[in-house]
Known about the structure:
This is Gas vesicle protein. InterPro entries: GvpG. This protein is mostly helical. The chain has one domain. 81% of the residues lie in helices and 0% in strands. It has three helices and no strands. The longest helix has 23 residues. The chain starts with a helix and ends in a 5-residue tail after the last helix.
Amino acid sequence: MRGVTWVVDRVLEAAEREYYDPEPVEREPAALERALIEGRIGQKTFDEHEDRLLDRLEEIAAHRRGDTAP
Length: 70
């Protein structure tokens, strides 16, 4: 049973590292801006996605600070 628990713990740790990795989120604004400039999305869509990205980056920063409150 301890082996299963250990494996589950490692999987959860890896998933958490990936979820809280800021690098992929930090790359998205440039792609989003390109989509806006190229006319593939409108300003409203851009603003909505940008707000979500900023919220996500704040969540990552809070996690790194050890904040548990949303």
